[in-house]
Amino acid sequence: MVVGDESEPFVRDGKNVFAKFVSAVGPEVRPGDEVAVVHEDGTLLGVGRAELSADAMADFDTGMAVLIREGAASA
Questions:
Q1: What is the CATH number of the domain that holds 7?
Q2: What pTM value is reported for the model?
Q3: Cα–Cα 20 to 30 A to 73, which of 12, 17, 38, 61?
Q4: Range of the domain at 42
């Protein structure tokens, strides 16, 4: 799953990702799947559990997309 600059500091701090900030996600992602959250430049920001399907993440403007389990420390 890919997010932009707006979400980067929050995900690194272990905060959750909301659907409106998801810029790309693999079509195979289903609720409950473990996902890696990366910045648009490919940097790993964190890992967590998908709360929505890939289709729902693309369609929704509200709601939690990923419950972050662990954020990546800033370099």
A1: 2.30.130.10
A2: 0.90
A3: 61
A4: 2-71
